[in-house]
């Protein structure tokens, strides 16, 4: 299972004399902390809500803690959880709502990353119960439409509500949870980041276009072909570029 953002595809562009390294070597915890910071800046910023969980080779999970915002945490704040979601490494708590993530990981052995949050723009379309149309190229970087789970049964720390949301995701890559937020899965953090920011961009762009009276969505076949290319590889160099911005802003994210 590949948790690292450093996929084979990047290895093709590995640094050699005359070419720059994209980033210093990073630990798995540093990758999770950087992804939290990046996504917070992209709209995944509902205070202390939301989690990123990353399954490790030994079956444990890395996750962000309950007490901290995604924009303040650092690598040493990242927790390790056992397969039941209990903290086995780290100095913070994990919210009971983690059961949503454990349910999805248990059902989806084909993915290693689960993200849930209540992002600014995705939550608007979740509330309306509509899939945002694809009005531009950047909105098309991930193919397929998110599924809509059109029922709100309460916060997901209630096991039944969490299992229902996980069940609604089914075999899909992403979902809008009505009156709640978004849920998405991915093979690695690079792909998860692309899916998260594309959903938010697509939601914001569609809102703006429709506020101006509407536009013409991309032809479905063009959108599918575009997203089919970029989603599979997580858009090389994008995660690294955004990680560098975070490290420049606050190098302590790596501590
Ligand atoms: Zn939630």
Task: Describe it.
- By secondary structure, the protein is an alpha+beta fold.
- It has a domain at 98-246: L-fuculose-1-phosphate Aldolase (3-Layer(aba) Sandwich), CATH 3.40.225.
- It has helices spanning 8-11, 28-41, 99-107, 122-128, 159-169, 189-211, 220-233, 238-249; strands spanning 51-55, 61-63, 79-81, 87-89, 113-117, 147-149, 174-177, 181-186.
- An 8-stranded mixed β-sheet has the order 4-3-2-1-5-8-7-6, sandwiched between helices.
- Helix 3 runs parallel beside helix 5.
- It is globular.
- The mean pLDDT is 92.
- The protein binds zinc ion (ZN).
Name some characteristics of this structure.
37% helix; L-fuculose-1-phosphate Aldolase; alpha+beta; eight-stranded mixed beta sheet; 13% strand; 8 helices; binds zinc ion
List the helices and strands and how they pair.
Elements: H1 8-11, H2 28-41, E1 51-55, E2 61-63, E3 79-81, E4 87-89, H3 99-107, E5 113-117, H4 122-128, E6 147-149, H5 159-169, E7 174-177, E8 181-186, H6 189-211, H7 220-233, H8 238-249
Parallel strand pairs: 6-7
Antiparallel strand pairs: 1-2, 1-5, 2-3, 3-4, 5-8, 7-8
Helix pairs in contact: 2-6, 2-8, 3-5
This protein binds zinc ion.
Task: Give a summary of the structure in a few sentences.
Helix content is 37%, strand content 13%. The protein is α+β, with helices and mostly antiparallel strands and 255 residues long.
């Amino acid at each position: 299972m590949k948790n690292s953002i450093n996929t084979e595809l990047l290895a093709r562009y590995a640094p050699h004399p005359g070419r720059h390294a994209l980033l210093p070597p990073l630990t798995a915890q540093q990758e999770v902390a950087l992804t939290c910071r990046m996504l917070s800046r992209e709209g995944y910023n509902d205070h202390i809500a939301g989690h990123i969980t990353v399954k490790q080779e030994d079956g444990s999970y890395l996750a962000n803690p309950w007490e901290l915002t995604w924009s303040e945490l650092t690598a040493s704040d990242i927790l390790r959880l056992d397969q039941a979601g209990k903290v086995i490494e780290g100095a913070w708590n994990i919210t009971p709502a983690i059961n949503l993530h454990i349910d999805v990981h248990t059902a989806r052995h084909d993915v290693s990353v689960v993200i849930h949050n209540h992002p600014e723009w995705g939550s608007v379309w979740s509330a309306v119960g509509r899939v945002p149309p694809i009005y531009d190229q950047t909105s098309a970087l991930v193919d397929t439409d998110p599924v809509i789970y059109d029922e709100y049964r309460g916060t997901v720390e209630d096991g039944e509500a969490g299992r229902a949301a996980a069940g609604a995701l089914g075999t899909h890559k992403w979902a809008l949870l009505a009156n709640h937020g978004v849920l998405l899965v991915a093979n690695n953090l690079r792909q998860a980041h692309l899916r998260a920011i594309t959903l938010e961009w697509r939601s914001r762009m569609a809102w703006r276009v429709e506020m101006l009276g509407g536009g013409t969505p991309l032809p479905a076949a063009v959108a599918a072909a575009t997203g089919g290319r970029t989603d599979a590889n997580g858009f090389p160099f994008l995660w690294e570029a955004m990680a560098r911005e975070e490290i420049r802003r606050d190098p302590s994210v790596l501590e």
